[in-house]
Amino acid sequence: MNGQQGTLSGALRLVGVVLGVLILSGCGEIFAFRQWMYNQPVARTYRESEFFADRRSARNPVEGTVAQGTAQTDEFFYTGLVNGQEVDALPFPLTAAVLSRGEQQYNVYCAPCHGLTGYGNGVVARRGVTPPSNYHSDYLREKTLSHYYNVMTNGYRNMWSYEQKITPEDRWAIAAYIRALQLSQNASPEDVPPDQLNQLQGMQP
């Protein structure tokens, strides 16, 4: 009986040793695999590389390469210019949705300096910085829509460029809304359609 127990105990120990070896071997392989994945021989951005003759890891793009989504095929839409000149037009139809979008974006990006109504009296201006432009001045009322688009794109005097913050579509929408603000503050009875003017006059006490 004791001999059988000894044989069984020895067999169990042998199985335990074999399982331990297999587990340790598996863990070693897993660890080695993780290290191999972590230490891949890849080029690190802006780091030196021994693979290329010039020792630079970053490769110059092929001449004429255009990044996906950046092809600017509509010159007027992206530059605001027609034959190198600013024009008083939009590159797409003016709709209520465009003006609504322009108002929303204007209130976010422009109103802090130029004020909600465009008089240059926003909260930033009231804190003592150089006063921003007043959209209702004679000078700016005569400017084209392209002018406002280009100012937002390239910056002007103390105003920095918003090209990276506001999409071209929204820059045009803001330009349209600025024109709406100008019209709202400098309107005359002649600007009101006759049928609506009659209604307004009928509402007067």
Short descriptors:
205 residues, mainly alpha, Cytochrome Bc1 Complex, Chain D, domain 2, two-stranded antiparallel ribbon, 2 strands, 50% helix, elongated
Fraction of residues in β-strands? under 5%
CATH topology of the domain at 75-187: Cytochrome Bc1 Complex, Chain D, domain 2
Low-confidence runs of at least 5 consecutive residues? none
Helix content: 40-55%
Computed structural class: mainly alpha
Number of β-strand runs = 2
Quickly give the CATH architecture of the domain at 75-187: Orthogonal Bundle
Q: Order of helices and strands, N to C?
A: HHEEHHHHHH
Radius of gyration: 35 Å
What is the CATH class of the domain at 75-187? Mainly Alpha
Structure description:
- It is built from 8 helices and 2 strands; from the N terminus they run ααββαααααα.
- A two-stranded antiparallel sheet has the order 1-2.
- It starts with a helix and ends with a helix.
- Helix 3 (96-109) packs across helix 7.
- It has 205 residues and is mostly helical.
- The longest helix is centred in the first third of the chain and has 37 residues, at 2-38.
- It has a domain at 75-187: Cytochrome Bc1 Complex, Chain D, domain 2 (Orthogonal Bundle), CATH 1.10.760.10.
